Amino acid sequence: MAYWRGFKQYAVDLGLKVRGNLGISASQRLDVVALAAHYKVPVLSFDQIGCPLEALHHFTVSRWGKVSGYLLPVDGQLAIIYNPMHPKQRIRATISHEIAHLILNHEFRVLATGDDGCIFGDKDQEDEAGWLGAELLLPRDAAKRAVIDGISLGRLSEQFDVSVELARWRTNICGARKILQRARRY
Ligand SMILES: [Zn+2]
């Protein structure tokens, strides 16, 4: 993973600032559609853009895991097109990820998100969007709080409307477990 020096703290601060602009604190669920609307990006599902049936079947059934969504121009403006067959929490992560690219002023290309991030994306930019996208959904401070308060992953994932996997990842990397272990030792 190649993040520029200081990127993670930058993402923490930026995530909280964006949440502040949306009128929510670090402990509240993020409305990803409101997030996209804040950046004037419409959010549509594949079936809402008149996607040919054959293509829709390809993306949503045959290779349903491959494509989560796209960030692409529709009628002259950027829009996020997501795969409606995916679980809701994965769709939320896709939208947050795509908006993170915009917030970070990443070079615009048509971005298609798949199992390993955006298919046409630059590796470093993918890592950054992945990090900020997750920071927006479940802020580091909230993950820390949850670990310290002994909140279960299930409850945390429900509170923030994210997958248990994302909640686990965020709590593992937030640094709180180390603090707790150190505290127990002394
Ligand atoms: Zn991406």
Automatic annotation (TrEMBL):
Residues 79-170 form the IrrE N-terminal-like domain. Pfam families: Peptidase_M78. It comes from the Bacteria. This is ImmA/IrrE family metallo-endopeptidase. It comes from Kibdelosporangium aridum.
